[in-house]
Amino acid sequence: MTNLPVKNIHFLAKIAPASFSKAVAALSIGAALLVSTCAQGFAQGIPVVRDAEIEALVRDYSRPIFNAAGLSKSGIQIVLVNDKSFNAFVAGRRMFINTGALMQAETPNEIIGVIAHEAGHLAGGHQQRLRDQIARSQTMAIIAGLLGAGAIVAGGATDNRGLAGAGIGLATGGSEAARRSLLSYQRGEEMAADRSAITYLDKTGQSGRGMLTTFQRFQSALSLSGARVDPYRISHPMPQDRISNLQTLIQKSPNYNKTDSAALQQRHDMARFKIAAYTQGQAAVSRMMSKSRGSLAAQYGDAQLTYLNGNLRSAQSKTDALLKAQPKNPYFHELRGDILMKAGRPKEAVNAYGKAIQYDQAKSGLLPVMQGQALLAIGTPDAVKQAIAQINKGLARDRENISAYRYLAQAYGMTGNVAEAELATAEGHYYSARYRDAAIFAARAQTRLKPKSPAWMRAQDIINQGKSARR
Length: 471
Fold this sequence. Notes:
mainly alpha
């Protein structure tokens, strides 16, 4: 994980799940009332975390669940959101999981349960049905409003205050009825997604105990808040209701007592330590270390924190100790590369990132880009040429890596290839949903590109998107 303020957070989305109060914020796992989104990402707003290790982990969590749900060929993308609350939601073909959920979940099974629940929404087509239900509710509210307005007008025309008052009540009452109808529908969809999740967990031989743990956490938070919540005015069932509906079913499963493998638990703990180090600092890491002192995950968290605090010599020593324990762990090599880059030793960082790429079975697009950055820092003509190849390799795996286009444009600029530099800049704007800026740079690139060449045609596609955005 690279420095969050610089490289790991890209502002891709403005999706605002409805929230009712801080006390019930934790209830919002599941499909929320979603606004329409852009093609490549989303209007700016949600801080998205990119990290090869954590992305590989959640993909491994989701793969068997998606297979069980019939979603393995649906191109579902999991996006990590830099938010400390325990939350997850879906939008289009994307599933968003907060880093706070990963931090608070003490076992992989808890997050797998969350993924299974969200998969239930996707497999059940809940998003489209929710949009249809919203449309019906809006129609109900509009009709009620028109009837109410008619009664108000009639009351005014006849000087009948009672009739006019009834009209106001009819208008507001109709709107409230529509809202309650919609919320009731959403609660039903949440319960359906819960049941689907149990089915997927059973199919994959996994326990549903993690789901119960999650709902119990929500119930405890709600009780401690002292908030009084009207269960008919929220979009999700109350945690206790969800526990009551699922507990017997989960406990009857032959998989109830199954636990996560030690290797998977270790990966989960490492991800939690990394998130804690980057987002919450020394205090959070220390609290976690007190529960698992001496573990490899705790050592990893300590090395990450030492690196972030700028003690590079100590961080490298701690990372080398980690590599002695797991010499083929790609993310230990990645951390070593980060330390060497920060220490101004890019040649050594290139080798470290190279080993990370070599051992990365998930084939992340992020690691080649990081090696490309190190090659750019070397700055020789041959290193820059290699940087272009590595960054393009990363982009072939991950087309929406916005930062990568900036480094690619820099690399092409260093070689004097202005056309490709401008096209790379256009791509970065395109995947940031800044279509007008993308079209400007694409048009500039076209003036230097061979007409009808693949690069020229790609520039034309971006220009056409820019024209559509202006309409």
